Amino acid sequence: MSKTFALDLAGVTVAVEVSEPGWYTDLVRRYAAFLTTRPTSWSARLDWDPTLTVTDWPTVEHTGDVTQFRVLAYRGRIDLAQRRAVVYAPAADRAASAIERVLVYILMQVLPREHNGLLLHGVGVVWRDEGHLFFGPSGIGKTTLARRARGHAQVLCDENVVVLVGAQGPVLYSTPFWGHSTPSDLIERVNRQVPLRALYALEQTRDFSLQRLSPGPAVVALALTEKVAAERTSSAAAWLAVADRLVQQAPTYRLGVSLQPGLWEYLHTQVGHTAAVLDASLTHAVSRP
Q1: What is the pLDDT of residue 231?
Q2: Which of 134, 155, 207, 247 would bridge with 218, disulfide CB 3.0–4.6 Å?
Q3: Do residues 209 and 255 touch, judged by C-beta distance below 8 A?
Q4: Neighbour count for residue 259 (Cβ, 10 Å)
């Protein structure tokens, strides 16, 4: 007999129905910080299909508001109009990954269309009681950055975070969707929201550096590292509109990161005793010995 729990993900509420009772307890424990009793606007069913194996030929098909996919060891269907989704996993150890593929896709589509928000691929941290978002392509060093944040900042998530843009400024929200390769000792799923102070586009450099980006290049930097739903014109247009509002309200910097430790100490020297002193004219670099 299936069981259901509900999640609140930055205001997007989803009822998750789990067909296999043995999977339910682990999933509820995993998402405990995000459980809600609020009415839900979406439903997603997680089902079992023991015949599924990892495919070498992933497929994603869009027909109107319906998206069907077969990726890795999962298959599923998402109906944006009906606000329903179903995903199949072959075993318990793949259950969380399966449902998160659906939940991430829902957020990616719904946030810019309906909530003036974005799901962003990056490391979100709380530093000096303000939110800071570090983003960049896979392999740029986001997990390393999150690991080295210990003792300096609270990491909200190292893979997916949400930013909502409102009249009082952008707000950074945590999600439970950490990287699949993140060591378990680094993962702490917390449900928290804080004002977003700044965004940082990461690039690997010999020395640490920090340079302010104007709004146009800032949006481009975000777009180059995000899963923008370009196959849906309305979603892509909404994403760009929200991204433009975001970079108008929160400064975006190109942050050169060295492979050597010392990033947080470097940021401390640049930011001083409060993040408010980050200045639009900051365009210098600091060399490490």
Answers
A1: 67
A2: 247
A3: yes
A4: 9
